[in-house]
């Protein structure tokens, strides 16, 4: 394998010494970039880009040509697993993801089987292999999946949801069936992430986008428990190197202590959570990734620099911080503002990593 | 004035001894009740019910005829103030509130004046007076308003929002103008709540529905600061009795300590927040109101009873707990399930209030 030239991101996730705070950005390959919109327009749909390894590779690399990001992230969707299970994923403009065949009856759930990602999601592992080849050791590649709970919400609701009425009605009225669904998903997610690792992903992230919609008690029982099951099944070493893993629950700031006991190397923080307070709460257990408000990128570059400095200062000295947004970048953000964020992180973070 | 026959709710908010845990429910007057849908249908629109004191009174009283709630809450909307300021509130089926004339320019904000509620929102204070008369001292009446920050989000966005892009762009790019808007709103909200108190509201609640969309830092600067300004201006006594006040920030579970220092008597808790943990964090500073997941009312009555018992147990012994949902009830909940919740709270809470 090619030697990795910049492994700052991987070291920060493992709280090993670094020279500066690494940065990448959720949805860094995406609609805010005109070159992405061009590829997406020519392909005809979002899924057409995801399922074509050459196109997925191209858009994964685009942001790295503009900005000094310290990691690449596979271009894909969090809902590939339910699609592989036969639910029929498609995207309606402005309405987000939809499933043609959502889970409507107990029989729909009973018949779901754990997926074999190298067969059913071959387009993803092919993309991972191609991206690794094209990255040529410049920065590490992140693989990812939706969390079991988050996948379940879309599979039962049939798409995005405001109140999660259907999935919560199932959870409250038939918890055993809900647990069966989540167990099948946890096994599938672990197999999927391990296939990405085997194909070359050098770190993996679990996106629990909707865990924050649960009560503390239900979060532990229906979301975190299955995130932990995934973690327990994950490949931890590949190519002679630790493959760090990250757990991100949007709206999960109340539960960082519990999240920090599940074995994940790092926790993603949404923008609501104060990173200084978060570090005090989790101690040395995990690294932290985050957490600028994605909407702060509407501000002018000078304001963005000040916000970056505040977050660096709040995290404080020492390794274990990966800079990121607290959620995905929005499509109408000016790429110049992204550059201001990235360059500010690299300019102002070395002082927090002075080697004595 | 008529003697108040059941003041359990008011005593619990002030952490005075009670015989059982009182309960009311956010949106208890609403679409889940067929008798409400009848009035609403005949009136033609939601705002037609709000602006007609007789109809507002009727729907406020409806849930009390079915359930043993320990408080009534004025039937109104959180957005009456911006409507009185001339923004033109209307409701589109399934889309939530909209303003015909949202704030689009600095001049739109500069020209806003503090409202005089007894003139511009006379229909509200008339409704309060009529409801008090009709309650005839059975249970106390709660008045309410949207918080300055939450009103500002709707006024700048023009309606509900997913990302709050416009209001955050304003906040990040012109904080001084944002502060001016919030100051005008805080003065208006305080005047409005004080007018409701003068008309007969025996407790008041500030709904900060969208404070949770902010970072910790921005929450303190743009939401909590103005909630405190409102609190500092509130009438604290009327009819020879303390008028307790409640602050509810949905998604604000991370900031309870800061909220508890603002002088409010009680904090509303959303369903994400563990009430046992919350009580430990706020100590004796405030009472707590909440916090069953509104979606748990989809469960069958036996499950609802178990969930009620868990929350009562988590709060534990002593006064200072008002049972409620963690957010408003949904329109498709079976009223029998509400009855199961209310009756369970009354049946299982006395053991937590045993007088030695």
Which descriptors would you attach to this protein?
356 residues; two-stranded antiparallel ribbon; seven-stranded parallel beta sheet; 16 helices; alpha/beta; homodimer
Structural notes for this entry:
The structure is a homodimer of 356-residue chains. In chain A, 47% of the residues lie in helices and 11% in strands. With 356 residues, the first copy, chain A, is an alpha/beta fold. The model of chain A has no long low-confidence stretch (mean pLDDT 96). Chain A binds chain B through residues 163-165, 168-169, 172-173, 212-219, 251, 253-254, 271-274, 277, 291, 293-296, 298-300, 303, 310, 326, 330, 332, and chain B through 163-165, 168-169, 172-173, 212-219, 251, 253-254, 271-274, 277, 291, 293-296, 298-300, 303, 310, 326, 330, 332.
Residue ranges of chain A: pLDDT <50 for 5 or more in a row?
A: none
What is the multimeric organization of the chains shown?
homodimer
**For the residues shown, what is the average pLDDT of chain A?**
96
Largest interface: A-B, 36 and 36 residues
Series of H and E elements of chain A: HHHHEHEEHHHEHHHEHEEEHEHEHEH
Terminus-to-terminus distance of chain A:
33 Å
**Helical/strand content category of chain A:** alpha/beta
Q: Order of strands in the sheet with the most strands of chain A? A: 1-4-5-8-9-10-11
Number of helices of chain A: 16
The Cα radius of gyration of chain A reads 19 Å
Number of strands of chain A: 11
Helix content of chain A: 40-55%
What is the 3D form of chain A?
globular
Per DSSP, what share of the residues of chain A sits in E-state strands of 2 or more residues? 5-15%
């Amino acid at each position: 394998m090619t030697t990795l030239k910049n492994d700052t991101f991987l070291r920060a996730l493992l709280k090993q010494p670094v020279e500066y705070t690494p940065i990448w950005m959720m949805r860094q390959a995406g609609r805010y970039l005109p070159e992405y919109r061009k590829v997406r327009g020519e392909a005809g749909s979002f899924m057409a880009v995801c399922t074509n390894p050459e196109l997925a590779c191209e858009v994964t690399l685009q942001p790295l040509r503009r900005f000094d990001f310290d990691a690449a992230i596979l271009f894909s969707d969090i809902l590939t697993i339910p699609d592989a299970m036969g639910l029929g994923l498609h995207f309606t403009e402005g309405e987000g993801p939809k499933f043609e065949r959502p889970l409507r009856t107990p029989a729909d759930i009973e018949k779901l089987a754990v997926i074999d990602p190298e067969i059913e999601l071959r387009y993803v592992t092919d993309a991972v292999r191609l991206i690794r080849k094209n990255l040529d050791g410049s920065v590490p590649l992140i693989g990812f999946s939706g969390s079991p709970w988050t996948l379940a919400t879309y599979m039962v609701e049939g798409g995005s949801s405001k109140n999660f009425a259907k999935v919560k009605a199932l959870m409250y009225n038939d918890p055993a069936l809900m647990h069966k669904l989540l167990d099948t998903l946890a096994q599938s997610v672990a197999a999927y992430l391990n296939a990405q690792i085997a194909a070359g992903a050098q770190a993996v992230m679990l996106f629990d986008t909707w865990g924050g919609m649960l009560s503390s008690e239900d979060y532990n029982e229906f979301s975190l428990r299955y995130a932990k099951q995934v973690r327990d099944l994950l490949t931890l070493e590949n190519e002679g190197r630790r493959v760090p893993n990250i757990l991100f629950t949007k709206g999960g700031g109340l539960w960082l202590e519990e999240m920090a006991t599940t074995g994940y190397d790092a926790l993603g923080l949404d923008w609501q959570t104060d990173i200084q307070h978060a570090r005090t709460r989790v101690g040395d257990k995990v690294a932290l990734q985050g957490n600028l408000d994605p909407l702060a990128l509407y501000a002018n570059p000078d304001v963005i620099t000040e916000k970056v400095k505040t977050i660096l200062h709040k995290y404080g000295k020492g390794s274990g911080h990966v800079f990121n947004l607290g959620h995905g970048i929005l499509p109408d953000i000016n790429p110049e503002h992204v550059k201001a964020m990235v360059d500010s992180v690299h300019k102002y973070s070395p002082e927090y990593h002075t080697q004595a």
